[in-house]
Amino acid sequence: MKRGRPAAAIALTGAFLLLAGSWAVFTAGAAPDEGAQQTTIPPVPAQVAYESTADHSLFPNLQQDFKTGPEVTAACLYCHGRAAAQIMKTSHWTWICPRAKAMLEEREHIAVGKAEHIINNFCIALPSNEPRCTSCHAGYGWKDKTFDFTDETLVDCLICHDQTGTYRKFPTGAGHPVYARDFPEGRVFGGKTWPPVDLGEVARHVGKPRRQNCGVCHFFGGGGEGVKHGDMDVTLASPDRELDVHMAVDGPNYRCQACHTTRNHKIAGRCFLTPAYAERAFALRGMEENLLACESCHSARPHAAAKNKLNDHADKVSCEACHVPSIAPRKATKMWWDWSKAGERTPEGKPIVRKDPELGESVYDAMKGEFVWAKDVVPEYIWYDGRIKHSFMGDTIDDQTPYSAMRQQYIGRYDKMDPGKPVVRINWVETHYDSAGARIYPAKIMRGVQPYDPVNKSLVVPKLFPGEPNSADAYWKSYDWDRAITTGMAYAGLPYSGTYGWIQTEMIWPLKHMVAPKERAVACRECHTRSREGRLAQLPGFYLPGRDYNAALDWVGIALVAGAILASLAHGLARAASRGKGASR
Amino acid sequence: MRRVKIYTRFERFWHWAQAVLVILLALTGFDIHFGWGFFDWELGVSLHVILAWAFLILVVFAAFWHFTTGQWKQYLPAGGGMAGAMLRYYLGGIFRNESHPVKKTELSKLNPLQRIAYALLKIILIPALVVTGVLYANYNDLAAASLGVIAQLHAFLAFLMVAFMFGHMYLSTTGRTFWSNYKAMITGWEDVEED
After folding, report:
1. DSSP assignment of A218-233, as one string?
2. For residue range A333-345, what is the model confidence (pLDDT) as tens digits?
3. What is the pLDDT of residue A567?
4. Which chain B residue's Cα is nearest to A311?
5. Cβ B32–A575 below 8 Å, yes or no?
């Protein structure tokens, strides 16, 4: 026997593997929000970094003691003559999605936006509730249907351009701030005093919008901080890298407009059936108007060549699916809103409010019903191409088909929905795995219970906010649903049978913000797993390695391997037992 | 008894390199398929692909060797009903300690059943695994490919490969002595009966 040969063979094998290894290639817009409650807006740094060639604090026509917002606007328009006309074309003014119009021709030419037709499962709908909702309108005085959308002085320049952080619209002021003329001592809302705004001081300190400017409305959508969006709250005003890798104050410190590219007051964004961007292509600032897609800067193959398998995902998996790993990472967002529970009052008639001691958020409010809040939770995932279909006021709804018959599966870790009962989808995606452009996106699915008309089979518009004069028709005054719905539906010009019921609803809110640094990106096995807890456990329509398998083929395969082992064992034992018998073995 | 060189240095290298690669490919592959979690997912997938490339390169070298040396003829069917004789031996004769029906020589290393089994392995199973594996790794660039079909087929073929491996490991103990085949595949040398 020649010794050393096996060792040589092993060494050679090792060398070969190393060699082979070294050659180897691893292939391996949000629309504006109704209702805001600017109670916890973050402090704004005193110094203002001017990016302009003009110093507004020196302008002669700004050296005056403005009484009202429209007076300031008139002064702005003296120089910025086209600004109001530009704003008036945008959804910040119209609250109607301009580009979706053409796509909705099959729906009797109606325009889509929360100004008309749109209903949701937060504060439900705008009509008859204007003064509260329009505290987030980029204008002054939209208190009812009579608002003049053509009056340029009603455009609110300051809400977006204020650099002092002192300009705030009063929550129920139909878009007006608190004026010293009317309320020299300030005006009270929600137990807090809103001081009068020094309009001259604000007018003399204007500049390009900062995160706080967008945030005064968009962080508070749905009537409070973080209520509506699962990916926007006050923490985005000065985020660290952990929270948002692009906006990080210790990083690039981007403003919203870095992605929501803006030209002539037209801000890039998504609305309903109009996707945020048309192409997932690399884009150059200055050459393209729209840099909204991650791909605009990162390209469609953003990972290093050594991680090419990750790039391979990008055709079917959105960037957000891995890089927006959780809903509401820092501050809780509302996941469930049950209007049917509203109205609980003390024997003395005082509306009851109950708070979750841990989250500090109200889990019950007699005005609004029951809530479930959630913080830092796993999103649901949908096949989505940037287009969301939306139901409208007056649409006929299906109040019979149970949810479980509509969707294959329901996770609902953070709501109280009963999947055995019907659910109206207020908005929905019609895309699936095979749809062109559809990719896996993370979403917050807002669920709740809201009033509907079981005779006319439609969701209803209740009048919630009393307004001026303090109308007892409003639910928040009389706690009478029938009266509130009758008033709201009449105002909206929709039929109401006089009977109301309660129905479950759900609404999709795709997650796009709070992009985490790569260390916090979703790990492979959170999706590539057979676990029922896997992030994509319920997403249908495709084969996901690690999650999916053919049970029959697997069992046949296992049986073959086990058979080979067992047959070998049996044969070997029989050989051992027959040793010594017969001839010379 | 005569001591002969049955397996050349390259054959032994090829055999054991292939063995190591198949075992590692099976471990990483089934870890991906079953989600055991032995490896971090990304590491497991990377290893599986690197090992697959190593395997492909080895296959190319082996094929070159087979054709240049003419050793591919070892896999031609024996004929003359010898395969049946082998089968009868495995199912009966071996328990009565009958002598092996086929003599092993330098010129004819494989018994008739081995010829059939290895030919099937090399002509069907390994190419099928390689083809489904390449499709699996590159399905993104294949417009009409169904990942589900490719992946499940690849996994099933891998089960066959593992089943083969266990059978092969056992049947290798049925040589002249219990360990003689193993020793031959390690050292290259084996004692064969003289004519």
Report:
1. HTTTTTSTTSS-SS-S
2. 999 999 999 999 9
3. 95
4. B140
5. no
